[in-house]
Amino acid sequence: MGLLIKRSAALFCALAAWTTASAASDCADPSKALGVSRIIDVDTSGGPIFGAVTKREKEESFLAPGEVVLTFDDGPVPWVTQPILDTLDQFCTKATFFSVGDMALSYPQMTKEVLARGHTVGTHTWSHPNNLRRLSFEKAKDEIERGFAAVSLAAATGIAPFFRFPGLNDSDELLGYLQSRGIASFTVDVISDDSYIGNPQRIADRTLKLTAARNGGILLFHDLKRPTAKALPAILAGLKAKGFKVVHLRAKAPVVPIATLDAELQPILAKAPARNLVPFHGPVPAPKTAEGQDPAISELAPPARTRLTEAPQGGDRQASSQPLRRRAKPAAAATRARRHRRGATQPI
After folding, report:
1. Residue 216 CA neighbour count, 13 Å, CB half
2. Average of pLDDT values for 23-34?
3. Contact criterion met (CB below 8 Å) for 147 and 123
4. Which of 237, 243, 250, 306 has its CA 20 to 30 A from that of 171?
């Protein structure tokens, strides 16, 4: 198992280095380039939490005035994630995707494509229960671990130890567990409300208004809703026009999933329909500033906080995870995605 971990870490580091050092061509349309103003490599070993929407003790913002981070939750689904990736490419910028485990296993090639385009992938639980605090600690822990295992399996390489709580419903107990696993939690500063707004122009107007009011921040979108994909060009154009700069987040090291979950999840991955494969062809330009320069790279390593009198023990990272809930049927993610295709809403 140690060799597998080393190989996964090597692939993760190679992918991160490739997206920075790629000799690919510059932005196809420099006049539209929003670019990446700087890159932050996050050391997650202290289990930090970033973003304003939390009642917990959090880290100071790593963003300067006028800076934003683009994030997308709940995917991937090809008919939304794909056009979002294309739009991000058109504006020559990068984002972080917090993927749901059963969605990633239903559309594994889409997960791979997000990484191939140079974006960062974290997780958003296995099945998106809207409030982990309402579950027992053991069930909530299983949702977190199964999510990381599933997305890592779909990606076939290391992913970032970045996590977002569904509904932004965090707790000190669960943050303590994430800390024991060396996983960072990301809440948000600006909520686009694209889960509930069906009009792309309204999504764009709301996002730009709130971002301007805060003078930047971590922005929340969903790569599960068609209106989001339709709104994104106007949002990115508006951010550029208003002088905002995009900061891209990367992890210094990949997450180490619980090994025994792979055996449980492999049968689901094996049933992913081949028709959903949407391969990406061609080199991906490395992150560049709007002016076509290499962005500055900095490191962020917040120290661990004391969240509980006695934080739950994470245990051996390679220890077995006792099955705590019935696995979702392989078609569950695809069924949920079809509902959203017809316009149903999804919580954060």
Report:
1. 14
2. 74
3. yes
4. 250
